[in-house]
Amino acid sequence: MLITFFTSAILVTSVLLVLSNLGTVADDTSKALRGAVQRIRTQGGAASWVAFAVMWLTIFALGLL
User: Fold this and answer.
1) What is the mean pLDDT, run by run of 10 residues, along the chain of 65 residues?
2) pLDDT at res. 8
3) Helices 22-43 and 2-20: crossing angle, nearest 10°?
4) 3-state secondary structure (DSSP) of residue 11
5) What's the first-to-final CA gap in the chain, in angstroms?
6) Nearest to 18 by CA among 7, 6, 29
7) pLDDT at position 11, please?
8) In the chain, what is the greatest distance between 2 CA atoms, to the nearest angstrom?
9) Which of 29, 43, 55, 59 has its CA 20 to 30 A from that of 65?
10) How far apart are CA 44 and CA 25, in angstroms?
């Protein structure tokens, strides 16, 4: 029972920490995505990146079935 309480407290604390910094996380994520898109555009090879993303989305989608 005590272990369950501690793990639940750690989980709640982690969620609260993430939610309190959600703006920063979203800002950093958008900057990273913009940088990645810019690199893909300048270096070419967008088709391979799209194929890679579709492959992983398919793997995750099939994993949920």
Assistant:
1) 92 91 89 88 81 92 85
2) 95
3) 60
4) helix
5) 34
6) 29
7) 95
8) 56
9) 29
10) 28
Rounded CA separation 7/14 (Å): 10
Rounded Cα distance between 42 and 18, Å, is 33
pLDDT computed for residue 55 by the predictor: 94
Question: Residue 58 has what pLDDT?
Answer: 95
SS3 21: coil
CA 32 vs. chain centroid, Å, equals 11
CA distance 38 to 64: 32
Amino acid in position 38: Q
What pLDDT was estimated at residue 13?
A: 94
